[in-house]
Amino acid sequence: MNRVRDPFNLHNLTLNRPGTIAAINILRATATTAATEFRDRAEKAAASAAQQAVETAAKAAEFAEQAAERTRDAIGAVAEAAEAAAKEVERALDQGFQSQSDLEQGVLLPAAEEPPEEEDIEDQMASFSIPRHVPSFTDPVRQAEDRLWAATRQRAGQGAGGGVLGGVQDKVGGFLNPDRTSLPMYKDKPYGYGPGGGRPRPLLRKKRVLGFLTLVVLGLLWFTGFFDEHHERAVAKLGDWGWLSSDTKARSKADWLRRRERVVEAMELSWDAYERYAWGYDEFHPVSKTGRNMAPKGLGWIIIDSLDTLMIMNLTSRVTHAREWISKSLTWDQDQDVNTFETTIRMLGGLLSAYYLSTEYPNLAPITDDDIGAPGEDLYLEKARDLADRLMSAFDTPSGIPYASVNLGKFQGLPSHADNGASSTAEATTLQLEFKYLANLTGEKDFWDRSEKVMQVLDDNQAPDGLVPIYIQPSTGHFHTSNIRLGSRGDSYYEYLIKQYLQTKKAEPVYQDMWNDALHGIRKHLVTYTENSGFTIVGERPNGLKGNLSPKMDHLVCFLPGTIALAATEGLSEREARKKPGFWNKQREADMKLARELVQTCWGMYRYMATGLAAEITYFKIPSDPLPESSSQHTSPPDSIFDDPAGPEATWRKDYEVHHFDAHNLQRPETVESLFYMYRITGDVKYREWGWEMFKSFVNYTAVEDGGGFTSLSNANVIPPVTKDNMESFWMAETLKYFYLLFSPEDLLPLDKVVFNTEAHPLPVFEVGRLLKTGWERKARTGETKSA
Ligand code: DMJ
């Protein structure tokens, strides 16, 4: 029997009053849903209020605080109402709800939940497409949203879509599945969706009294921490990992190899949990030990994304199983909308990387049953090619800027159903490494030309100082909105500039030029220093370059220090780069300094948190008149600042701030990615040590009981943490891979021979040749930016 907390002693009351058991059961059962929904709605309301505040760059912190205040008020109101409700319950108990015989006939018992028909599940999945940052679909927020969406769909019919694009995607979804009752997979909401207008929700209308009572009771249960406790029990205890407590300092190469073996064990545990509980599914929920697909027949989301990590770690039997699934079960011929960018970086990138590794490193997890004697796994290239042909339909737009989505089965590009049909800038410009390598492998020039054209169209906008707004319109090729940031929707635009330059062995200086412009712009407009300790940060300009600097850093921005270092040495070690005739200069020196400072700030994001795992978003305390990057008044703090004996009262901590709604940790890779680059390039062992500390925190606080693998956290700033029940595919694709490489010898995948795509899939550098070459030049700058 499930143990539940019983603050009203209802259990004993029911023992003494036959006839009330079922009533209380109803309260308990429905209350769980209602309270979860209530909590998540309150959190969501506050989060969205905070987001709005950030977007307008006006009083962000103040606004979020107000939202939190409203949430607290709401909780207070619930608590007050709960008291009244408790009395109501008591009175009901006194009177008896119903006769025992009625109860025994199940009059008040909740109907047993029918398992959904397989067909229904498939129908619902058919309407999914892939999100930018892969939400959890078992998340209560999502489930609540799905219910609300279903209600609005039912009352509005299939014509709910609207907006400038006429709800194209909605219409397609409706055509495919007229009974669709769950949200499309994007985190963005379709037009017409929202809790605002319309009639009252049916649940509340029909069961208002019961709903209110259960809401109140469960509101109280949540308030007293019942649900958190439930989550926390899912996290494995420190004792399960003996080596964590007996960890000693690494003194030799052998010690680092031993540490690397711990990473392999974490990979094995993650993969085996997925294999055991969710094999073939696109999502894995390690706490509930369930899986879920994002397309009717699955997309191989986790299998393909993890494949090259398994290969690099030489886990042959697992690679064999993955390959077997790809061979026998994977089909792209599905009537399914997918996100162009996510599918390119994870699936196309994963398959191409597996092809590359199996060709160039045949001794890594060798498989002998495909084309014996021939190098490479044709299977991976065949599947990559088939997928790419379908993804190419995204580029069929008036400007050449790709649509946000495609329907795989229909070879059809689809504009975003939100943001006026605009695509995210980072998404449109983070496809080129994959399509260009495929062009090189297949000789198909079209893959090259269409992906390259995007860069030209974007650059023709002449964004000042190389800093691009985070949306761009496929219809016009012009920017949409003026929001500039290196976090979500902006990040990998910058990353792929320098990586495109390196991919073709520096034969395309146009991309280095664009990178140099952008880095100059980052220094000029986004870099500043914190008030107390002088940490270097990269802020945001939500209202464009003329607006204020917001001292907010997504964890996503932490890819930047590693990428700056990579650009500064062009893949060489710093020592080699300094010796190379005519290569080293003041600018490269300054870039390495900036990279060192920024990675220290990112490391501080981990040190700041209770679990040692960074929050999704961190705010920084900066002076009202922020110091420019060019300021000579700035001195970086020493690393020892993090060991300040003042502990929680340490001055450095006053520069960091994490809002409650941003305290989640999604197992993201960006900081360990930068540590990997920084170690490879500088050779400074401190970056390995920081990585080891991070890895231990992941093991300590995110491992799931019963061999469940590892989970994201909803709150990484409490101990024990609150789990989120989702293992992101980039945990195995990126985070564990970068830990492994950080502790590996430097000659494994050297940085002057490979470029890692933004999902950590290594692709080789190659010569462009005559067929494939840069087909454009940058226009002379006029000082005017085009926007839609
Ligand atoms: C990954 O899919 C990629 O690293 C992408 O560039 C950003 N988001 C996730 C990891 O955080």
From TrEMBL:
Q: Which residue ranges does UniProt annotate as crossing the membrane?
A: 209-227
Task: List the InterPro entries.
Answer: 6hp_glycosidase-like_sf, Glyco_hydro_47, Glycosyl_Hydrolase_47, Seven-hairpin_glycosidases
Which ranges of the sequence are coiled-coil? none
Q: Which cysteines are joined by disulfide bonds?
A: 558-602
Concerning Gene3D superfamilies, the annotation shows: 1.50.10.10
Q: Which EC class, in a word?
A: hydrolase
Q: Does Glycoprotein count among this protein's keywords?
A: no
Biological process (GO), any one: carbohydrate metabolic process
Reactions it catalyzes: N(4)-(alpha-D-Man-(1->2)-alpha-D-Man-(1->2)-alpha-D-Man-(1->3)-[alpha-D-Man-(1->3)-[alpha-D-Man-(1->2)-alpha-D-Man-(1->6)]-alpha-D-Man-(1->6)]-beta-D-Man-(1->4)-beta-D-GlcNAc-(1->4)-beta-D-GlcNAc)-L-asparaginyl-[protein] (N-glucan mannose isomer 8A1,2,3B1,3) + 3 H2O = N(4)-(alpha-D-Man-(1->3)-[alpha-D-Man-(1->3)-[alpha-D-Man-(1->6)]-alpha-D-Man-(1->6)]-beta-D-Man-(1->4)-beta-D-GlcNAc-(1->4)-beta-D-GlcNAc)-L-asparaginyl-[protein] (N-glucan mannose isomer 5A1,2) + 3 beta-D-mannose; N(4)-(alpha-D-Man-(1->2)-alpha-D-Man-(1->2)-alpha-D-Man-(1->3)-[alpha-D-Man-(1->2)-alpha-D-Man-(1->3)-[alpha-D-Man-(1->2)-alpha-D-Man-(1->6)]-alpha-D-Man-(1->6)]-beta-D-Man-(1->4)-beta-D-GlcNAc-(1->4)-beta-D-GlcNAc)-L-asparaginyl-[protein] (N-glucan mannose isomer 9A1,2,3B1,2,3) + 4 H2O = N(4)-(alpha-D-Man-(1->3)-[alpha-D-Man-(1->3)-[alpha-D-Man-(1->6)]-alpha-D-Man-(1->6)]-beta-D-Man-(1->4)-beta-D-GlcNAc-(1->4)-beta-D-GlcNAc)-L-asparaginyl-[protein] (N-glucan mannose isomer 5A1,2) + 4 beta-D-mannose
* Pathways involved: Protein modification; protein glycosylation
* Essential cofactor(s): Ca(2+)
Please name the Pfam families in this protein's record.
Glyco_hydro_47
**Family (UniProt):** Belongs to the glycosyl hydrolase 47 family.
| Protein name as it appears in the record | alpha-1,2-Mannosidase
| Native source species | Neurospora tetraspora
